[in-house]
C-alpha cells in the first residue's frame, strides 16, 4: 500500500493538485573493518590512526583472538611502506610484494584469508533470531512525513480497506479462461490449463509483440533469467538476440505514465496476477502445439476477457455471496477507521467499485453505520481517469443507488457520489497540501512474510560481500588468483538463485534485480511517500509520529560503501597511484 502527499504529485497521479499517497505493500549495525583489520601488531590494534592521512579507519575489536597471523601480516604491509622508493611502494600496493617484516605467501592463500574473514563478518551480521528484529508491520518512508500535520486520510476500497484471499485470483482466472474459449473462440485445449498460484508476481512487464513476460530494472534493463515465453524460460542468449544484442529496452517503449508504452505493458495492480497467468498459459498452448498465432491479438483478447469478469459483475457477485471466504482481516479495517475518526481526522473514500458492492463489504467489516466514519464517499470513480480527466462531473446517488440530475456544488457527509475528477474534488473540499494522505492498493507480499526474512537477509549480505571481494581484488591476475575469483563468482550466482527462489522461483523479488531496484520499485519511490503491507500498520504508530527516509550512499560516496570498509581503506584500483596528480 502506498501513501502520497497530494501536493507533491505534480507529475504523478494527483497531477498538480495538493495532498499524500501511501503504498500498502531497522537498519542493522554493520561493524566496519579497520584499514588494518587483519594486522596483528602496531597502532591498528588500538584503532588509532592506521591510514597514511592519520585518520582512524575503524575499530578492530571484532577480530577473533585466534585470527590468521599470516593474513594479518599481509594486510598490514600497506602501513609499512613509508621511506621506500616509489617502485617498492607500487609493488607493495599491488599485493604482489610484501614488506621485509611479513612472511611471504602466495595470492591464493591471501585471497582465501580475506574470504574467510568476510564469511565471519556475514555470520556476525546475521545472528540467530535476527528475523525477530524485522517487523512486517513496519511503515517505510521515501520522504519525510509528519503524521501530526495530516488531518485528512483518503482510502481506496479494493485491496486497501478490503483485503481479498488468493482464492479470488483463481476464480478470476477460471472465468476469464472460460470467456476466452467460449466468447473469443480460442482452442478448447487452453481450458485444460489450471491456475498456477505462484507463477506471476506484480510489477512485471509484458512485451505485447513478442509475447514475453519479464522483469525490468529501474534503468530499463531486462533481468536475464526472468524472461518467460508461455510457461518456459527463454535462454539468455536468445533474449539478447531478440533485443538486438542488448538486454536494454528503449525508454519510449516503456515510458507511458501508467507503465504502458507502444510495445510494453507493466502489470502494476494485484488484479493483474490472474491476467499474467492466463497470458502465459495461452502462449504456452500455442507454442507447445506449434500453432501460429498473433501475440498482439492474444494480449488484447486476454485483457478484454479479464475486463469482462469485472464489467459483468462476476467478481462482485462471488465476494458478496461469501464475504467470509474472500474478505480478510476486516476487524483491522474497523480498528484503523475508528482510531483515525476518534482523533478528529476527516476520512474520504474513492473507489472504482459500485456502491452496492462497497456497502455490503463495509457493513461486514465495519458495521451498518460505516458511512458515519467518512466525510466524502465516491464510487465508480473511473480511476485512473479520475486523476487526469477534468471532463466528468460528480453525480449524486439517492438511497436506492439511482443517479440524480442536480448540480453538485459541495461534497457533503452522508451522501454518495459517482464519477467526478480530482480538480473538482479539490475545489469542492478545499483539501490540499501535506495535510491530506491517500492510501492506494499497493500490497507488497515481500514485506508480509517474516519467517523468510532471515534467509533473505543472509543471502543478500553474502552476495554483497562476494561482490565487494571481487571488486577489491580483481587486479590479482595470476592463474591461481583468477581461479579463486571465478569460484567466488560461481558462489555469488548460486546465492542469487537461492535469493530469487525465496521470493518467486520464476521472477524473484518485485523490489530488486541482481544489482538494481526494479522498475516497479522505482515507481514506488517516485509516487509514494510511505509504503507498508496494509493499512493496519498505522495501528503501530502514534498519530504524531514523524517518518524519516534512511539515507543511502550514492556511488561516488565511496568511503561509506562496504567494499572500502571490508577490503581495506580506499583500495580502489589505481586511486593511490593517482594521488600525485592532485
Automatic annotation (TrEMBL):
GO molecular function: 5'-nucleotidase activity; metal ion binding
Superkingdom of source: Eukaryota
Keyword Metal-binding recorded: yes
Gene3D superfamilies referenced in this protein's UniProt entry, alphabetically: HAD superfamily/HAD-like
Keywords recorded for this protein, A-Z: Hydrolase, Magnesium, Metal-binding
Protein family (similarity comment): Belongs to the 5'(3')-deoxyribonucleotidase family.
Name of this protein: 5'-nucleotidase domain-containing protein 2-like
Organism in which the protein naturally occurs: Sinocyclocheilus anshuiensis
Gene: LOC107678756
Amino acid at each position: 500500500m502506498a501513501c502520497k502527499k497530494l501536493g507533491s504529485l505534480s507529475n504523478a497521479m494527483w497531477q498538480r493538485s495538493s495532498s499524500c499517497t501511501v503504498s500498502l505493500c531497522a537498519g542493522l549495525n554493520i561493524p566496519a573493518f579497520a584499514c588494518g583489520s587483519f594486522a596483528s601488531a602496531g597502532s591498528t590494534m588500538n584503532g588509532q590512526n592506521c591510514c597514511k592521512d592519520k585518520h582512524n579507519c575503524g575499530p578492530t575489536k571484532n577480530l577473533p583472538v585466534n585470527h590468521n597471523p599470516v593474513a594479518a601480516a599481509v594486510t598490514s604491509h600497506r602501513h609499512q611502506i613509508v621511506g621506500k622508493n616509489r617502485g617498492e611502494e607500487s609493488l607493495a600496493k599491488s599485493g604482489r610484494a610484501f614488506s621485509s617484516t611479513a612472511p611471504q605467501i602466495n595470492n591464493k592463500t591471501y585471497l582465501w584469508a580475506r574470504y574467510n574473514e568476510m564469511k565471519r563478518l556475514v555470520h556476525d551480521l546475521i545472528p540467530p533470531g535476527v528475523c525477530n528484529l524485522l517487523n512486517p508491520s513496519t511503515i517505510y518512508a521515501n520522504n519525510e512525513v509528519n503524521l501530526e500535520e495530516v488531518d485528512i486520510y483518503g482510502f481506496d476500497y479494493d485491496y486497501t480497506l478490503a483485503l481479498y484471499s488468493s482464492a479470488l485470483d483463481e476464480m478470476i482466472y477460471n472465468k476469464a479462461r472460460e470467456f476466452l474459449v467460449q466468447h473469443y473462440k480460442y482452442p478448447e485445449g487452453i481450458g485444460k490449463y489450471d491456475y498456477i498460484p505462484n507463477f506471476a508476481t506484480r510489477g512485471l512487464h509484458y512485451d505485447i509483440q513478442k509475447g514475453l513476460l519479464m522483469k525490468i530494472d529501474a534503468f530499463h534493463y531486462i533481468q536475464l533469467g526472468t524472461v518467460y515465453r508461455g510457461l518456459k524460460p527463454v535462454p539468455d542468449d536468445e533474449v539478447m538476440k531478440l533485443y538486438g544484442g542488448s538486454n536494454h529496452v528503449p525508454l519510449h517503449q516503456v515510458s507511458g505514465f501508467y507503465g504502458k508504452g507502444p510495445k510494453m505493458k507493466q502489470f502494476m495492480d494485484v488484479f493483474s496476477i490472474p491476467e499474467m497467468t492466463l497470458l502465459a498459459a495461452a502462449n504456452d498452448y500455442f507454442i507447445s502445439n506449434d500453432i501460429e498465432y498473433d501475440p498482439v491479438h492474444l494480449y488484447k483478447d486476454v485483457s478484454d476477457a479479464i475486463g469482462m469478469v469485472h464489467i459483468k459483475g462476476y467478481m462482485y457477485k462471488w465476494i458478496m455471496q461469501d464475504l467470509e471466504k474472500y474478505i480478510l482481516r476486516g476487524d483491522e479495517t474497523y480498528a484503523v477507521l475508528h482510531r483515525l475518526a476518534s482523533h478528529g481526522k476527516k476520512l474520504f473514500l474513492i473507489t472504482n467499485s459500485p456502491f452496492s458492492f462497497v456497502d455490503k463489504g463495509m457493513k461486514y467489516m465495519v458495521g451498518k453505520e460505516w458511512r458515519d466514519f467518512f466525510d466524502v464517499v465516491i464510487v465508480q470513480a473511473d480511476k485512473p481517469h479520475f486523476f487526469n480527466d477534468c471532463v466528468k462531473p460528480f453525480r449524486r446517488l439517492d438511497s436506492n443507488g439511482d443517479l440524480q440530475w442536480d448540480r453538485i456544488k459541495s461534497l457533503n457527509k452522508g451522501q454518495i457520489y459517482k464519477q467526478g475528477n480530482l480538480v473538482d474534488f479539490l475545489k469542492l473540499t478545499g483539501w490540499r497540501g501535506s495535510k491530506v494522505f491517500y492510501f492506494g492498493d499497493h500490497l507488497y507480499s515481500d514485506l508480509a512474510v517474516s519467517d523468510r526474512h532471515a534467509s533473505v537477509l543472509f543471502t543478500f549480505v553474502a552476495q554483497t560481500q562476494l561482490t565487494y571481494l571481487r571488486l577489491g581484488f580483481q587486479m590479482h591476475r595470476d592463474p591461481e588468483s583468477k581461479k579463486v575469483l571465478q569460484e567466488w563468482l560461481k558462489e555469488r550466482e548460486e546465492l542469487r538463485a537461492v535469493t530469487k527462489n525465496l521470493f518467486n522461483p520464476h521472477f524473484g523479488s518485485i523490489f530488486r534485480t541482481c544489482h538494481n531496484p526494479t522498475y516497479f520499485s522505482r515507481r514506488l519511490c517516485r509516487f509514494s511517500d510511505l509504503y507498508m503491507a496494509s493499512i493496519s500498520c498505522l495501528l503501530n504508530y502514534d498519530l504524531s509520529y514523524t517518518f524519516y527516509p534512511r539515507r543511502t550512499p550514492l556511488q561516488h560516496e565511496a568511503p561509506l560503501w562496504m567494499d572500502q570498509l571490508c577490503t581495506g581503506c580506499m583500495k580502489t584500483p589505481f586511486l593511490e597511484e593517482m594521488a600525485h596528480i592532485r
